[in-house]
């Protein structure tokens, strides 16, 4: 399969697991520390590559969001399913003209949000897909990898 070069941005509050997710997707060792500014990871998809741009969720690095979003084909909004505030905070994030998906991470800790709450936020964000993952345990990553490959190939 041939894939054009594609940019994916991961947005969400500090500590929800964006970097761990990016490392898990790219098969790297999971040694995430809090992101300073922005990190960039490369995911091989067929003969192409997908650039995963992973800005810090901390407010003081808010400027990194503009960089992450510029030219992105796909925006993945990430929250921690065990911390409801991280789901609702996503409504404050920009909604650029890109495909959008919602990712509930840390399912290994159990869900403290209802499926209805998640569906409500997904709808308001304009997310076309919702995924549940544990980046730490490696759960649910194949579905996201397939979806990214689909976006990259499209
Ligand atoms: N239990 C559990 N912990 C996770 C999971 N994913 C990430 N973590 C942990 O959550 C903490 C924060 O993860 P990061 O990947 O640094 O989070 P981040 O969203 O990149 O945070 P910032 O860079 O500060 O915005 C780390 O201690 C991770 O090991 C998960 O699926 N389950
Ligand atoms: Mg990070």
Brief write-up:
With 154 residues, this protein is an alpha/beta fold. Helices cover 29% and strands 26% of the residues. It has helices at 18-25, 63-69, 84-88, 115-125, 141-153, and strands at residues 6-11, 38-45, 48-55, 74-80, 99-105, 129-132.
Largest sheet: 6 strands, mixed
**Rough outline:** globular
Distance between the termini: 11 Å
**How many strands in all?**
6
CATH architecture: 3-Layer(aba) Sandwich
Please state the oligomeric state of the protein chains shown.
single chain
How many domains make up the coordinates?
1
CATH superfamily: P-loop containing nucleotide triphosphate hydrolases
**Helices and strands, in N-to-C order?**
EHEEHEHEHEH
Q: What structural category do the secondary elements indicate?
A: alpha/beta
Detailed description of the structure:
With 154 residues, the protein is of the alpha/beta class. The protein is 29% helix and 26% strand. The chain has one domain: 3-Layer(aba) Sandwich (Rossmann fold), CATH 3.40.50. Strands 2-3-1-4-5-6 form a six-stranded mixed β-sheet, with helices on both faces. Strand 2 and strand 3 form a beta hairpin. The longest helix is centred in the C-terminal third of the chain and has 13 residues, at 141-153. The termini are close together. The model has no long low-confidence stretch (mean pLDDT 94).
């Amino acid at each position: 399969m041939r894939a054009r070069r594609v940019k994916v941005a991961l947005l969400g509050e500090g500590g929800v697991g964006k970097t761990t997710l990016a490392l898990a997707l790219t098969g790297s060792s999971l040694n995430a520390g809090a992101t300073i500014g922005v990190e960039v990871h490369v995911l091989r998809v067929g003969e192409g590559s997908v650039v995963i741009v992973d800005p810090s969720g901390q407010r003081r690095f808010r400027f990194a969001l503009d960089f992450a979003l510029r030219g992105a084909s796909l925006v993945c909004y990430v929250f921690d399913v065990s911390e409801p505030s991280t789901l609702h905070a996503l409504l404050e994030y920009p909604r650029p003209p890109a495909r959008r998906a919602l990712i509930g991470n840390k399912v290994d800790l159990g869900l403290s949000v209802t499926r209805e709450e998640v569906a409500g936020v997904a709808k308001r964000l304009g997310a076309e897909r919702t995924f549940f993952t544990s980046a730490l345990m490696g759960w649910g990553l194949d579905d996201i990898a397939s979806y990214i490959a689909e976006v990259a190939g499209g």
